[in-house]
């Protein structure tokens, strides 16, 4: 199955994608995580992406689309994948459709995670991520680690993302509304979108998301 997860920053896309990908046995492909991995490894791609990310702007399509395509062409993604944070504008959605069409494939479902803006701001403000693994995500109030600053899973150091400052979050939300939300209409025209409330317990959101997938 090929799934696209859409939703504002802090909606819980990464949290849900990790759980859904595990249940469905498909890779979780997050362009944000790919950029952050490139930044921590000091690659040229990472250097190019960092200034855009720190400013809360989209990384240019020429960089993003190639990186996403490379990842989707890895052998583990041949049977399906869960995209988190890609596509993020209509040009990326069109490029993805074109790429899949050439391979005689298609998107099966688009899940639109819906959450009010004041909740998003709270989720981002309290988020802490493990330096060893971006799937180890905590929240100071909603999902606090047992020991302050230490990952429960692997003992790694927890940190706050550079782009999680209040001013940058406001810019990311603006970019979401102007550039990313239009892809929901783009996919709605293809009959692919289900809106899923991302409020409430993490496990309940996962259940709703699973129920929204075709064949469930
Ligand atoms: P990216 O990394 O994709 O960030 P984002 O879309 O802004 O989303 P977040 O990672 O902030 O949030 P999330 O929805 O995954 O929430 P999470 O699960 O962590 O992108 C970052 C930047 O990279 C972009 O700004 C751009 O510059 C660049 N970029 C990436 N992709 C690009 C593309 N395609 N094109 C161009 N540029 C691109 O949850 C948030 C917090 O809430 C956590 O602490 C979590 O524990 C908590 N939480 C989750 N669910 C719940 C719940 N149900 N109840 C309570 N707390 C919860
Ligand atoms: Zn960890």
TrEMBL record:
Superkingdom of origin: Bacteria
Protein name: Adenylate kinase
Chain residues that bind AMP: 31, 36, 57-59, 85-88, 92, 161, 172
Pathway assigned in UniProt: Purine metabolism; AMP biosynthesis via salvage pathway; AMP from ADP: step 1/1
Residues the entry annotates as binding ATP: 10-15, 127, 137-138, 200
Broad enzyme group: transferase
Domain note: Consists of three domains, a large central CORE domain and two small peripheral domains, NMPbind and LID, which undergo movements during catalysis. The LID domain closes over the site of phosphoryl transfer upon ATP binding. Assembling and dissambling the active center during each catalytic cycle provides an effective means to prevent ATP hydrolysis.
A Pfam cross-reference name: ADK_lid
Catalytic reactions of this protein: AMP + ATP = 2 ADP
Region NMP, annotated ranges: 30-59
GO molecular function per UniProt: AMP kinase activity
Primary subcellular site in the record, as a coarse category: cytoplasm
Function: Catalyzes the reversible transfer of the terminal phosphate group between ATP and AMP. Plays an important role in cellular energy homeostasis and in adenine nucleotide metabolism.
Gene symbol of the encoding locus: adk
Family: Belongs to the adenylate kinase family.
Subcellular location: Cytoplasm
Listed InterPro entries: Adenyl_kin_sub, Adenylat/UMP-CMP_kin, Adenylat_kinase_CS, Adenylate_kinase_lid-dom, P-loop_NTPase
Keyword Nucleotide-binding assigned: yes
SUPFAM superfamilies per record: P-loop containing nucleoside triphosphate hydrolases
Subunit annotation: Monomer.
EC number: 2.7.4.3
Keywords attached to this entry: ATP-binding, Cytoplasm, Kinase, Nucleotide biosynthesis, Nucleotide-binding, Transferase
């Amino acid at each position: 199955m090929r799934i696209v997860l859409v939703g504002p920053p802090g909606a819980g896309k990464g949290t849900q994608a990790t759980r859904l990908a595990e249940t469905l046995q498909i890779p979780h492909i997050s362009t944000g995580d790919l950029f952050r991995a490139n930044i921590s490894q000091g690659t040229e791609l990472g250097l190019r992406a960092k200034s855009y990310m720190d400013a809360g702007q989209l990384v240019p399509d020429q960089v993003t689309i190639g990186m996403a395509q490379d990842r989707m062409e890895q052998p583990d993604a041949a049977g399906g994948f869960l995209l988190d944070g890609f596509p993020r504008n209509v040009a990326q959605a069109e490029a993805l459709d074109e790429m899949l069409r050439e391979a005689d494939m298609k998107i099966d479902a688009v899940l639109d995670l819906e959450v009010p803006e004041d909740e998003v701001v709270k989720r981002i403000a309290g988020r802490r991520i493990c330096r060893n693994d971006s799937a180890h995500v905590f929240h100071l109030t909603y999902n606090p680690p047992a020991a302050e600053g230490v990952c429960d899973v692997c003992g790694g150091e927890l940190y706050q993302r550079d782009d999680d400052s209040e001013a940058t979050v406001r810019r990311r939300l603006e970019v979401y509304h102007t550039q990313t939300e239009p892809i929901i209409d783009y996919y709605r025209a293809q009959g692919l979108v289900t809106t899923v409330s991302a409020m409430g317990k993490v496990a309940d959101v996962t259940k709703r998301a699973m129920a929204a997938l075709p064949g469930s």
